[in-house]
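[User]
Protein folding is very new to me. Any chance you could explain this protein sequence and its structure tokens? I have pasted everything here:
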Amino acid sequence: MPTVLLLLLGLPGLLVAGPGLTIYNRNFAVVRDIVPIELTTGLNAVAYDGATYHLEPDSVVLRNPRDGQPLNILEQNYRNDPVTQELLLSIFEGKTIDFFIREPTKPDRTVPGKIIRSGYVAHGGQAMQRYGNQYAMTQMAMANPGYGGAGQPIIEMDGTIRFGLPGQPVFPSLGDETILKPQLNWKIEAAKASKFDAELSYITGGMSWEASYNVVAPEKGDLLDIVGWVTLDNQSGRDFAEAKIQLMAGDVNKLPPQGAAGNIGDRHSRARQMPAPASEPAVTQQAFDEYHLYTLERKTTLRDRETKQVEFVRATGVASDILYVYDGVMIDWNQFWRSDTRYRRTNEEFGSQSQSKVAVMREFKNTKTNKLGIPLPAGRVRFYRRDADGTLQFTGENRIDHTPAEETVRIYTGDSFDLVGERKRTAFKVDTSNNWARESFEITLRNRKKEPVEIRVVEHLFRWTNWEITEKSDTFLELKSDEIEFRVALKPGEERKVTYSVYYSW
């Protein structure tokens, strides 16, 4: 388990009155709660019925906050079989109960029936994940009558056997072994009597959060208004009333359950009107270990199956730039990725295909001088621009990764309608005996806009690590060891060509 989780589970002083949550953006959370405990000398039974449906039992920590030490727990049990009609049928297997029958043409009546088989399959999704696909398939077959499984009840009535329930079952009172919600039970050995509020912490699945950003540009100019939201999603099976909620941003390593199918996918939230500025920030952040911890300033209630959104960043007048990038090469990596390097070095088709779209990129600096300067968690970014009537028009969206303060954010928002690029190879020669290759390219750029633009032409030198640009029409920047960039200014209606030749040796 990562250090960050151990700290959150065991650090003294973290728990405050009421439940606390630290939600991670990978479909799990750390839950902290208070369990009132009154112990007598000897063996004690303690129950807690506030557990979630996706609790990881081996992550539970229960301790006395007076000395910070774990209690002398002899046994811990996690029950996740809340009472249902199917469960009660299984409890009363072999017994006779009443069934309430209502039919359109007959008076309502109650008839007795003996439950020969309930059809209840006890093991759920958690057990299936823990024990793998073969176990899951067996359990599904048991629950599916169409495949000869035991998922259909068998009831004996008036000396005859019938499959399926004859009506609504009417059960006697609940027994002591039934529960209404997931429950933790402990057997605790105490040397002396005591009464205190114990601290409980555990990891649970079924909870996640995601950041999203709405970015608005004016009709003219590139000063942006940015509002960031966090969307909390609770699918844990439990309500958290007036909880202290924290959000952990960063790539925390977490092992999935055996056989698990993966995390819940991206959740979409609607674009919304920006609310009035709050008098105080709703969310504050701080560095924690190798990650960033965001804290909701107000306690909030997060109900089961609820999606809640909270504003966490608001900035006005953020300076930005629009970049136009022509990355014309198209490589079918399904064809070439398994090829050895010699094949790519000498194959004439490699890198010869191209496309004509010029990408539009929005760029801004995440700095205090630019009205930001806070760690931005990964999330979806939506761009809007006001038209001549002041109406917001959607102009593109993309995602950003976790972005530290003082870094630059660059986001692809779409392709330009009025800018066109063409890329073609004009020469290629390879000498396998002397271990060299040479190729030349011509890139044509056309600006159909009514204003001047600069297009950044990106070229990839994928053939080999040793290369040299022997001829060029324009100066270039070396972005990476295998990537160069030409910056080409074009007037309205202008067309320009960029040419270069590259020599590879190995």
